[in-house]
């Protein structure tokens, strides 16, 4: 089916960006050289990779300098940047590129008509420039033709470029609201991964929920509505347990921890994978992709979608005029088909109308449109099946570093994960989703006979000298909550931390017709499974959503019960619905303004409201330094390491702070 041309700026694309892989860049102690996790990315009509030595290879269209080599000449084979190293992640927009370096800075190059380079100008750049005022970055993404996203280590998301449909998420919209330096996406925290669509953006939070903002004519925001612009993040309807997200031009994808894929938005050529396509088949809330399971990674192009299965094969669906589905045809598919002659794949990405795969042996393969030589095979001819990307100057073939794959047992199978190791001597792991939402990788446990049957722990990657110890071994991952600020305190996945309690407010008052969201704090803070359900005893008085949002329907009293997924732990909150709103006048805490706590200990902070019947008030607790101490939604502090932090408690417009010292 032919695609109707849009009057919006030329498309493109996008890849899933998983923050979990960005956290892991361990040194190779054996060779005293730093290794990085190689990644692949695609822009509109150009392609990008970085090797495990942190250097970049890039090829394809270069009309606006998006190859970053100081020229505007198309490259039919991969070329290497000079004097640009230490890259840990890359992403491609329509005609621009972005790289994340190991020092947490972001660098961009290419088209800058709408400020998408974030350097404070609107001038194209043919060489990398640093994004202004942005540090502590752990993931990057490029959406559509021109907007750009970054995720910081504090869980906040930043955006820059055009904002005609609210895709920057700062509460404004319109081309006059475009930004050429980063702005913070409002109302969004604790984010684990980001992705960009054509004119919309996606964020995955560490609790497994998905949030979206921007263009929504086709329902690509996923909140059950359609409209021209959503300028601030809203939650995607009915999605939990998500471990990865990807954005197409006008559609969106999510991968759940059970290996299923869900899609929503535009479906004119079957890009949702729900076995139907054409007029009237768009979806404004998530639908499960048909005949697809056991998925470990996802990506999305202009109007096509990709998925890697646990057996290393790839599935594709949607638009196929240029052969981007890789099934030897040019016909569109409304349900997944297998990409021909491709196995042992560890990662995928997609451009406007081309697709790229990274295999476990470090080789790169591509298929689809090739008018700008974006396939990197030395030609400009489209390919309907995968071809191997050539080496620099067309000599040999590109390799990002040989790899070795082992499977991890993790959390009883709830978070099936695999590692891909660099060649012996590089010893670099790649984490392939599904990963563990809210956690970062922290090392390995080995109980194999090769280590004498003893527990063998490595906080960093295995060196070449350890290689024999892990071959054919059983490994267990070590994880740490992303809120704890490091990989040193985690827990062995094989002995995952059990839920001990769930806490909430004892009571809450709501004015009739108003809503509040109840906190549900699963304790301890790093428990393996934090999923809960909410139930209202009297739904005529107040109803509650799956995320804990309570709305008062008529005056009276009811009880909201919060239950952990295993059903073993419960908490209740009395909900009083009253006729008129009551204003909060005073906030006090049960703890002093300065408190000391020993590492590993906990402390409860309670907020006292005055008057007690103030309506719509739910205290919010935060820690200024989550590497020192974390505090959950119910006010329980857990001390993690020696240092100091500020605990802030907000209730309505009132605020109190506690200076905490951990010894």
Could you characterize what this model shows?
The protein has four domains: about 15-395, Methylamine Dehydrogenase, Chain H (7 Propeller), CATH 2.130.10; about 415-425 and about 435-495, no CATH class; about 495-580, Immunoglobulin-like; about 585-663, Sandwich (Immunoglobulin-like), CATH 2.60.40. It has two helices and 56 strands. Strands 32, 33, 34, 35, 36, 37 and 38 form a seven-stranded mixed beta sheet that branches. Strands 1-16-17-18-19 form a five-stranded antiparallel beta sheet. It has a four-stranded antiparallel beta sheet with strand order 4-5-6-7, with no helix packed on it. The model is unreliable at about 1-35 and about 405-495 (pLDDT under 50).
Write the layout of secondary structure elements.
Blueprint: E1 17-18, H1 19-22, E2 27-28, E3 33-34, E4 39-42, E5 46-50, E6 56-60, E7 75-80, E8 87-92, E9 96-101, E10 106-110, E11 125-130, E12 137-143, E13 147-152, E14 157-161, E15 179-184, E16 191-196, E17 200-205, E18 210-216, E19 227-235, E20 242-247, E21 251-256, E22 261-265, E23 283-288, E24 295-300, E25 304-309, E26 314-318, E27 333-338, E28 345-350, E29 354-359, E30 364-368, E31 383-388, E32 403-409, E33 417-422, E34 429-432, E35 439-446, E36 456-458, H2 467-470, E37 475-481, E38 491-492, E39 501-503, E40 507-511, E41 515-517, E42 521-523, E43 532-536, E44 542-544, E45 549-552, E46 556-564, E47 570-578, E48 586-589, E49 594-597, E50 602-604, E51 607-610, E52 620-623, E53 629-631, E54 636-639, E55 643-651, E56 654-662
Parallel strand pairs: 32-37, 40-47, 49-56
Antiparallel strand pairs: 1-16, 2-3, 4-5, 5-6, 6-7, 8-9, 9-10, 10-11, 12-13, 13-14, 14-15, 16-17, 17-18, 18-19, 20-21, 21-22, 22-23, 24-25, 25-26, 26-27, 28-29, 29-30, 30-31, 32-33, 33-34, 35-36, 35-37, 37-38, 39-42, 41-45, 43-46, 44-45, 46-47, 48-51, 50-54, 52-55, 53-54, 55-56
């Amino acid at each position: 089916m032919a695609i109707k041309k849009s009057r919006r700026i030329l498309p493109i694309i996008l890849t899933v960006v998983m923050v979990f892989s960005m956290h892991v860049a361990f040194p190779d102690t054996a060779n005293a050289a730093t290794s990085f996790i190689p990644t692949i990315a695609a822009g509109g009509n150009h392609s990008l990779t970085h090797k495990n030595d942190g250097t970049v290879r890039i090829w394809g269209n270069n009309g606006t300098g998006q190859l970053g080599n100081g020229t505007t000449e198309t490259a039919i084979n991969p070329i290497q940047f000079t004097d640009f190293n230490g890259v840990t992640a890359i992403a491609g927009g329509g005609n621009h590129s972005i790289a994340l370096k190991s020092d947490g800075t972001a660098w961009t190059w290419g088209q800058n008509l709408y400020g998408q380079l974030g350097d404070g100008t609107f001038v194209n750049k043919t060489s990398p420039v640093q994004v202004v005022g942005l540090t502590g970055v752990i993931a990057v993404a490029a959406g559509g033709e021109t907007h750009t996203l970054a995720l910081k280590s504090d869980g906040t998301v930043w955006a820059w470029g055009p904002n005609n449909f609210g895709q920057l998420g700062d509460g404004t919209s319109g081309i006059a609201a475009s930004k050429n330096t980063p702005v913070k996406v409002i109302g969004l925290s604790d984010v684990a991964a980001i992705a960009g669509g054509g004119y919309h953006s996606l964020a995955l939070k560490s609790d497994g929920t998905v949030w979206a903002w921007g263009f929504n004519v086709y329902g690509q925001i996923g909140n059950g509505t359609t409209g021209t612009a959503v300028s601030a993040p809203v939650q995607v309807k009915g999605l939990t347990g998500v471990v990865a997200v990807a954005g197409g031009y006008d559609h969106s994808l999510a991968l759940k921890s059970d290996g299923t894929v869900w899609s929503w938005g535009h479906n004119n050529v079957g890009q949702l994978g729900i076995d139907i396509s054409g007029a009237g088949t768009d979806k404004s809330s998530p639908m499960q992709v048909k005949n697809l399971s056991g998925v470990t990674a996802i990506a999305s192009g202009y109007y096509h979608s990709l998925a890697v299965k646990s057996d290393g094969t790839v599935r594709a669906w949607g638009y196929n005029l240029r052969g981007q589905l890789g099934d030897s045809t040019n016909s569109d598919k409304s349900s997944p088909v297998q990409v021909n002659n491709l196995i042992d794949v560890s990662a995928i990405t997609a451009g406007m109308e081309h697709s790229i795969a990274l295999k476990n042996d470090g080789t790169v393969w591509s298929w689809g449109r090739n008018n700008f030589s974006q396939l990197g095979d030395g030609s400009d001819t489209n390919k309907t099946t995968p071809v191997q990307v050539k080496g620099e100057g067309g000599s040999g073939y590109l390799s990002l570093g040989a790899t070795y794959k082992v499977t991890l047992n993790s959390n009883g199978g709830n978070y099936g994960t695999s590692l891909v190791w660099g060649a012996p001597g590089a010893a670099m792991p790649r984490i392939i989703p599904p990963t563990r939402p809210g956690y970062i990788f922290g090392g390995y446990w080995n109980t194999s006979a090769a280590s004498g049957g003893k527990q063998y722990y490595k906080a960093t990657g295995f060196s070449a000298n350890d290689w024999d110890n892990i071959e054919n071994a059983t490994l267990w991952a070590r994880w740490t909550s992303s809120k704890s600020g490091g990989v040193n305190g985690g827990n062995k996945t094989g002995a995952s931390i059990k839920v001990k309690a769930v806490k909430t407010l004892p009571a809450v008052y709501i004015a009739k017709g108003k809503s509040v969201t109840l906190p549900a704090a699963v304790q301890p803070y790093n428990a393996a499974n934090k999923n809960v359900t909410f139930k209202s005893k009297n739904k005529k008085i107040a109803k509650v959503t799956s995320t804990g949002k309570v709305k008062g329907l008529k005056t009276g009293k009811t009880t909201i019960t919060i239950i952990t997924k295993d059903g073993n732990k419960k908490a209740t909150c009395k909900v009083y619905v009253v006729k008129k709103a009551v204003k909060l006048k005073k906030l006090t805490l049960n703890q002093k303004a300065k408190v000391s706590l020993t590492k590993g200990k906990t402390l409860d902070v309670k907020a006292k409201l005055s008057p007690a019947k103030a309506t719509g008030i739910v205290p919010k607790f935060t820690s200024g330094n989550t590497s020192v101490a974390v505090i959950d939604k119910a006010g329980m502090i857990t001390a993690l390491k020696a240092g100091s932090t500020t605990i802030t408690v907000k209730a309505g417009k009132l605020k109190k702070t506690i200076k905490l010292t951990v010894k």
